[in-house]
Write a structure and sequence with these properties.
With about 725 residues, this protein is α+β, with helices and mostly antiparallel strands. The chain contains 29 helices and 27 strands. Among the domains are: about 60 residues, Arc Repressor Mutant, subunit A (Orthogonal Bundle), CATH 1.10.10; about 220 residues, no CATH class; about 80 residues, no CATH class; about 60 residues; about 80 residues, SH3 type barrels (Roll), CATH 2.30.30. Helix content is about 45%, strand content about 15%.
């Protein structure tokens, strides 16, 4: 194909046709082409054609592949003869996308497109250089027929041990030109033979439409009820995970991301699966609500506190909007082959992630009558995006999207919810605040050291309960359990026994059991008797029996504890290590500073660095009407200017005759001499453009520097920079 002929065809198109081309191939607008020649060159470029191919559905790709097997140019009837009747309508859609163009009454493929489709389209071999007579096929030996059967639908190549002695089956086929020799060990089925064996059709079966969805019917009421429960759970997970990492921040891996051990610990804390924790962490990371600080700690940011102050609808929509457009795939977290891919790490970016996510949700939106099975949805998605370069849409990516959409509440019971539809349509989400379960400000303490929260707790109560107790089970009601460890945790955060008892009595709708009150009092009495401080470190206790117990404890042997006074022990352990070891051994130490002041109190840890959410590999946005109209004006204006310049240059070329020819050294010498001695006169030059076309120009040189010439072009009247390397010759007028 000639680029000029393609450009001429584009020039014949209407503004509506060009606008449609930009709408289906938005990459052609970045940046806006200067004229239609530039547009044709860009539309025929390999990167743009690859993007266009990746946007085609299975049937469109089949039609385009069928067209590539025909002799160029081809007619519509020729295409229909090797495909199906539905291909006619699809041909015009391909024309609208500039993947075929008109040549009179026939059509052509852009030159680079054939290379991308491949030398063996649909498994067909190269054209034969000989005229093939198919009459001999009536008498074909059975062994030879078996060879043809294997090669008919591709691949068309076969291996032989020695082409000079190929054996009777292959030899018969070579003799009758039903096979051709590629090299000393390879034979190939010619395209004409392949088409004959396929009864003139390029594909065995065409797929004009996608397979129908399969699923079970769901009531919208049940869908939305499940979705709002998912939204409530998701927001609670985000809150709890951030608070958990504020209390016990994980240390990021050297390669970046969250380690397996910390992932499991967080999963146990939240009571959810590890892949769900990885997803929640990724969403918080996207929103800048958590960050990996310079000390490699994964901590909440101040943005998290701002996020918590917003309404539930605003919290949800802010994070879900980021999930829709992110190029990160949290589902890849875990083992990928032999390499671990960590959540929050640098290896989760995938270019196609956002488009696959958008495609999946679009398919769910198309089928709101019931819960679609994953297999039927995957089949539909792979029909929509079957591009060979990417291998089609990975089934796993569809599964990740379905799973994450359910966690987020975009879907409920595998059907898109009203909340998801409103989000995708950009409508108000105020309904979420009204539909979410009302918060409760009380608990029900039981006699077995447990407490029940009959609904989602108010934030202030939830934070207190997170300190005082561990979550035992979740659901419509959350069950908390009190223990020595949980009470000690609260005391370590600056609470006193009286504070804890007072809070529980004020918050519980049931009387506080005496055993729980005794438990709190007993732990509070012991807490802080044993103190750890820094020297490297010391341990002191007014109760000498506790000191004696530590010295005589077999579990602590070999740790280097040395008694230096009746109430003091020293060791070589760091303070934090000493505290952890003593706590694991069943003691209840508190930390004090060098002045003997207890280092307890509420710890609200936040990252001191500015949140830096991960980059998003952006998709090319679809242009709006304003962008399309502006592009059309620019294109038409540029085309008029290019036409005017071309006309003037043709007139100039006719008047001046042949193009001047000079060497590079001669060109520089003439230009330098002209600027020095004849700056008030004009020069004639030959100049090559971006496409290699040489035109005759009349210029007034102004300045020569750094391999460029600044001069006024007589054709445009504008001052233009000419590259010296592109000047083919120069002559005085």
């Amino acid at each position: 194909m000639s680029v000029n002929s393609f450009a001429d065809e584009l020039r014949a198109r209407s503004d509506e046709s060009i606008a449609h081309l930009f709408a289906v191939r938005p990459d052609l607008l970045s940046p806006v082409p200067t004229d239609l020649s530039a547009l044709s060159a860009r539309a025929n470029s390999t990167p743009s054609l690859m993007r266009a191919l990746e946007s085609l559905n299975k049937f469109q790709l089949e039609v385009l592949t069928s067209a590539s097997t025909l002799t160029q140019p081809f007619s519509k009837s020729e295409l229909l003869s090797v495909s199906v009747p539905e291909a006619g309508d699809e041909l015009m859609r391909l024309w609208a996308a500039a993947l075929v163009y008109k040549d009179g009454t026939k059509f052509r493929l852009p030159g680079n497109l054939g290379q991308l489709i491949g030398d063996e389209p649909a498994g067909l071999g190269p054209r034969s250089l000989k005229k093939i007579d198919f009459k001999a096929l009536k008498d074909i030996p059975s062994d030879s027929a078996a060879v043809l059967e294997r090669l008919t639908w591709g691949p068309p190549r076969g291996q032989v041990g020695n082409i000079k002695a190929p054996g009777k089956p292959i030899g018969w086929l070579l003799e009758h030109d039903y096979l051709a020799v590629m090299d000393s060990k390879t034979v190939v089925l010619p395209r004409e033979v392949g088409m004959h064996l396929r009864n003139g059709k390029v594909f065995k079966e065409y797929s004009p439409v996608a397979n129908s969805f399969k699923g079970t019917t769901r009531k919208q009421k049940d869908i939305d009820r499940a979705a709002i429960a998912n939204i409530s759970d998701f927001l609670r997970w985000c809150e709890e995970l951030a608070h958990h990492w504020s209390d016990e921040p994980p240390i990021a891996l050297r390669s970046g991301g969250l380690g397996i051990r910390d992932l499991k610990r967080s999963a146990d804390h939240l009571g959810i699966a590890e892949n769900c924790v990885a997803f929640v962490a990724e969403v918080l990371y996207l929103g800048g609500l958590i960050v990996i600080d310079p000390d490699d700690q994964i901590l909440p940011t101040n943005s998290f506190d701002i996020w918590m102050s917003r309404s539930l609808e605003e919290r949800w929509s802010a994070l879900v909007s980021l999930w829709l457009e992110t190029s990160r795939v949290s589902g890849l977290s875990g083992k990928a082959g032999e390499k671990n891919i960590a959540p929050l790490g640098p290896e989760l970016d995938r270019v196609s992630a956002a488009s696959i996510r958008s495609l999946t949700l679009a398919l769910l939106k198309e089928n709101q009558d019931g819960a679609v099975t994953a297999d039927s949805l995957i089949s539909a998605a792979q029909w929509q995006r079957p591009a060979k370069r990417t291998g089609g849409v990975p089934a796993s990516y569809i599964e990740y999207t379905l799973r994450e959409a359910e966690w987020l509440g975009i879907t409920g019971q595998s059907v898109i919810s009203d909340y998801g539809l409103a989000l995708l349509a950009g409508e108000s989400l105020e309904k979420i605040d009204a539909d979410l379960p009302a918060e409760v400000d009380h608990i029900l303490i039981q006699s077995d050291n447990t407490a029940i929260a009959p609904g989602p707790l108010a934030q202030s109560v939830a934070q207190e309960m997170a300190l005082l107790a561990d979550v035992e089970s979740r659901g419509g009601a959350t069950v908390f359990r009190f223990s020595d460890a949980t009470i000690r945790r609260a005391l370590d955060h600056g609470k006193t026994g009286d504070d804890i008892i007072k809070f529980l009595k004020a918050t519980s709708k049931t009387p506080m059991p005496q055993p729980l009150e005794y438990l709190i009092a007993d732990v509070a009495k012991k807490h802080g008797k044993l103190r750890v401080g820094a020297t490297t470190s010391f341990i002191r206790c007014e109760d000498q029996s506790v000191i004696a117990s530590i010295i005589g404890d077999k579990k602590l042997e070999g740790l280097g504890f040395r008694k230096i006074a009746t109430e003091v022990i020293i060791c070589d352990l760091e303070v934090d290590d000493a505290v952890n070891i003593l706590r694991n051994a069943g003691y209840l130490p508190a930390v004090e500073d060098s002045k003997g002041i207890l280092l307890t109190g509420p710890r609200i840890m936040r990252a001191q660095t500015k949140a830096r959410p991960p980059r998003i590999i952006g998709e090319i946005d679809l242009p709006d009407e304003i962008a399309l109209n502006g592009a059309l004006r620019t294109l038409r204006t540029g085309e008029k200017s290019s036409h005017r310049q071309s006309t003037l240059r043709n007139i100039t070329a006719s008047a001046l005759g042949e193009l001047p020819r000079t060497t590079a050294n001669e060109t520089l010498e003439i230009l330098s001499h002209h600027l020095t001695h004849s700056a008030d006169t004009s020069l004639s030059i030959g100049y090559a453009d971006n496409n290699g076309l040489i035109s005759h120009r009349i210029i007034d040189p102004l300045k020569l520097s750094a391999g460029s010439l600044l001069a006024r072009d007589h054709a445009t009247g504008e001052i233009t920079t000419f590259r010296i390397a592109r000047i083919t010759g120069v002559a005085s007028l």
